[in-house]
Amino acid sequence: MARTTDTAAFPVALPAALQLSRDGDRTLSEQLATHYAALIRQRLLPPGSRLPSVREGARRHGVSPHTLVATYDQLLAQGLVEAQRQRGFFVRERAAPSARGEAAAASPPDSPRVPVDASTLIRGMLGSGGRPGPGLGVLPPAWLDAPMLQAALRRAMAAGRDDEAQVAALHYGEPAGDPRLREALAQRLADIGVRAAPRQIMSTLGATQALDLVSRALLAPGDAVLVDEPGWSVEYARLTLLGMRLLPVPRGPDGPDLAVMEALAREHRPRLYVTVSVLHNPTGGMLSLATAHQLLQLAQTHDFHVIEDDTYAHLAPAHAPRLAALDGLKRCFHISGFSKILAPGWRVGFVAAPPDWIERLIDVKMLASLTTPALLEQAVAVCLEQGLLRRHAERVVTRLDAARGRSVRLAQDAGCEFVCPPQGLFGWVETGVDTEALAQRLLDRGWSTAPGSLFHARRQPGTKMRINFASAQDAAFWRDFEIERDAMRR
């Protein structure tokens, strides 16, 4: 039996600013149940707390009493509350889970949670529940070109290629990837200074799989790996899951701190360095030419390879320094993909590798996924060959430049400072308050943000957060940001 008191109050009111969508796929009762469930699981509503009466709850949220009854029914079904006759609904005492995994499994996939680790960040990316995402990592859907993608698929199956397209659709593709795509990728890489023959290129299920396959081919559990910090939390989690020892290197506007890198390399003899040279996530920084040369010298001296993640290549200038261009694909593995520029669901990526590593990578790929979807790869090849992708990227960059200007002005007017010069898709913002606590407050107001703790190899509180310039240009977000930040300061 839950402990209750007649005077138990509802300690955390649902913020008035929370917007219930009447046009989405989820009913009002589902939206309210999800929010109450999150408050209970985060213990912002402790055991024994009495929820508002049906009449009071309906008035508080601007819904019918029937909607509140349906909300409480869902919470009862989840075992989060109990009904006491003639007294109301109370939060139940819940046994502590034996492991963090059990707690995660107990939460429905669409529960609004502050992203505190890589898995919750991914859940936020894959399904934000309709919440605006100033901290998410993708372009707004309205910026993408669905007709172009449809046309590319049609052209991939057009007259003159019908037999080949049918074979691609009905059979496994080539282990290295579709030959047409690899030819187009070789030309695309040449445009940014990376010389790679088609036989040095292997397609993958997005850039994330490319990162994983190269890591598996190069590394063994216990190996040391240099990583940028701040950096991409999913990469930290993935390498840790493989059993690697992470060696964080502070990342600045021009690249990694080379003195720290050299000291770590001398002490730990790393096998690999993973980095984003161009439009770094989350800072937006760009590797300088001088830093790139010195970095490659360190790799040669201390005998480690480099994975260069060029995921944001289509948003960056072609002349930006790439390590793979300077290195000639001797120690560097150059990785990129198309989900950021075409659509998140178009999971087509690739790796350009040193010639003596490509067969090993193909073997690892076959063990991981057999092959990759040839028809989708041919559609991407069409986008490259016919200039569709280039023109689309130019439109996106123009739109992003305008959005960045608005987002920067709003952020600065709200009292924020940018750690690195604003460029590309992301800004790394100093807020002056604990951004993990701030993220929960903003989530309660309907905004998904990315607190700075996500971007450290070892979780730690911080005052920075990542914003997406494309989706952070809403003045309403920055008004809510100021309200919650100022409340935290009081």
Automatic annotation (TrEMBL):
CDD domains: AAT_like (cd00609), WHTH_GntR (cd07377). Keywords: DNA-binding, Pyridoxal phosphate, Transcription, Transcription regulation. SMART domains: HTH_GNTR. GO terms for molecular function: DNA binding; DNA-binding transcription factor activity; pyridoxal phosphate binding. InterPro entries: Aminotransferase_I/II_large, HTH_trans_reg/aminotransferase, PyrdxlP-dep_Trfase, PyrdxlP-dep_Trfase_major, PyrdxlP-dep_Trfase_small, Tscrpt_reg_HTH_GntR, WH-like_DNA-bd_sf, WH_DNA-bd_sf. Residues 26-94 form the HTH gntR-type domain. PANTHER family: HTH-TYPE TRANSCRIPTIONAL REGULATORY PROTEIN GABR, TRANSCRIPTIONAL REGULATORY PROTEIN. In the C-terminal section; belongs to the class-I pyridoxal-phosphate-dependent aminotransferase family. This is GntR family transcriptional regulator. It comes from Sphaerotilus natans subsp. natans DSM 6575.
